[in-house]
Amino acid sequence: MNTIQSMIQEGATIVDVRTPSEFQGGNVAGSINIPVQELEVRLEEVKKIGKPLVLCCASGNRSGMAERFLKAHGVNCENGGGWLDVNRLV
Fold it and tell me: Which of 41, 77, 79, 80 is disulfide-compatible with 86, CB 3.0–4.6 A?
């Protein structure tokens, strides 16, 4: 079992970092939408989630940027890649 799958099974919060319109077009059930460009101003909100985060976007690029930013600020997170890939693990 991979890390992302085990994180999801252990109750990680799935954060989709795509734009709100992309998120509305389809998303992982139960995921929350915090666009990558809003992470800096919403950092305290992200930290208050209090659980490990699995990040996703369309392809894994934006969630990779989000992972680097959040890890630099002490947030326990992993890049899950594209939301469709994460959706298959849920």
Answer: 80
